Amino acid sequence: MTALTLTPIETAAGRGAIELAGIQKRYADGTVAVDGINLRIASGTYCCLLGPSGCGKTTMLRMIAGHETPTDGEILIDGGNVVGLTPRQRGTAMMFQSYALFPHLSVRDNVAFTLRVRGIGKTERYKEADRVIEQVQLTELAQRLPAQLSGGQQQRVALARAIITRPRVLLLDEPLSALDEFLRLQMRSELRELQRQLGITFIHVTHTQLEAVAVADQVVVMDRGHVVQSDPARTVYAEPRSAYVARFMGGQNVLSGKLESVKDGLATLRGDGGQTFMLHLRGAAHSGHPRLSFSVRRDHVRLTKAAAGSAPPVNAVSGIVRAVEYQGTFVKVTLRVDGSQDKDDLFVAYVEEGDYFASPIGVADRACAAWDTEEVHALAAE
Q: Which domains does the chain have, with CATH numbers?
């Protein structure tokens, strides 16, 4: 399939700036799905709500959409409180995970259905449906039924049906989860391009870290009903605020140690296995804590073979290689760190393909993983 080429659409007044002020969702059984969230999403932003199952991201999406009512707090779109308004009144449209297409209706009738419900005449609604169908490059398939379409084509129908209402905010509930890997990669690129061309706010729920980083301007990481970090995608990936975010986003090793000394903002830590770590303390949040955590990116690690019984240098860990996985452009090498009390406490290095095969390290070999002090990112105390 060729890339989507769309023209900007007219939307309702405003462009979809969102502010959540003290939003809470509490159910009758006492369960708190969303707990006092404050969040701003600028107009025209592609925002991903990211987190594990049960963290509250879909509940938050449904409250913005108007399909759930918050127990407390305000939801503002372009400065106006929309709590109590219908999705149509607040200018939102939602694309569901299942696409929710009518199996007995053609592509054209599926796309036009919302306008039919709103009482738009047949001639006008089909004219508008044909325009949107052309935008998503499905004109030749307009008379087909959903069962006659591929997964990617069905998703385009669902997108066309959502944008035909000219929303200020388009909400997407795990829109890529039903697609195979090839289509998922293609469609996430097309979603990003669609958002750029339409210029409206997209809010996309996912539990897939790489998907969020690939498409989003703003990534909102959630945990147990709270927002734990909201930042540009690169910041969330490269500069996680906490050990939770670092571990959840992947691509980082999280280590900790007892604080031994601080000189000119440079801290020296003692690891559980006797290792010596050094890191720059940035901000008062790290001062005064007897134990500090930090992260090191997996692709910023140097890996070498190590002699049995040898002690690692400063800013390094040693251990036995537990797994080696070829990933194409790099090789993922997993170590069980010496001195670890937790059998699941593993350290991962992403070794550039050429470097690895120039000096391969195999399973059961002893290896040392080292990094520069400048590559260490201090994490907030939890």
A: 18-238 (3.40.50.300), 251-373 (2.40.50.100)
